[in-house]
Predict the 3D structure of the following.
Amino acid sequence: MDCYAAAPEGSVKPRYQAIFATLREEIVTGQCPLGTNLPTEHALSERFAASRHTVREALRQLQSEGLIERRQGAGSRVIATQSAPRFSNTIGSLGELMQYASSTFLEVLATERILVGAPEAARLGCEPDTVWTRVALLRRETRDTPPVCFTHLFLPAPFDGVADTIGAVPRAVYRLIEDRYDVTLHQVHQIVEATLADPDVASRLGVEPGSPILTVTRRYEAEEHGLMEVTINHHPAATFRHEMTLTNVGGRDGTRPAATPSDPAKAPKARA
């Protein structure tokens, strides 16, 4: 069974968002009942006077919210009438990273000292055969909600004295290190990748082994002391969204503008 309804009128949203909002409303209100198929991409393109690409993006958002499933040759089928709960993590600065740490509930599962082998050293960005403290953590929005993140947090020996305070106070770990050891965070290098949950991670997040997850590795580096903390964060793909905003600090091609003679601090130095 397929469901059809009239196109929206006078929307000021981007086309794909307007189409998404209309279809979502029809699903939630029962105009497109559970188990029915949405019209084909071609039919939706004609209905909304939009390109196939625009319609496809609207359908992708419906799928991301867990409302439909899309199969090659089988179309888009309604599988839920309410969006799956999703934790949105928007981090564009160190301040927002601190807010994320202080506004969520953190549970410490285990703390242990380990000798880092070659494979893990490559992941951490450190020398192999060095001693680090590893802390296993679960992060939730509130104490009673499902986990939004399972983390392995690594501390090098010079800074592992803060391990006992993790989770005891609602502060980012790098701030604990800064305060205790009088060092200053210089930069955070972040790697975001799609991975599959191994049995350990799957059991912590409450998903099936082999399920797609989002893995975010962050390396925290001090100005003069190198690595001060590394975290490997695993998020369930179905209930987590990571957002970031990129700011163009240069010209139209994204490069920084060249220094001018009127700006001595930025002007290139002459070679001797």
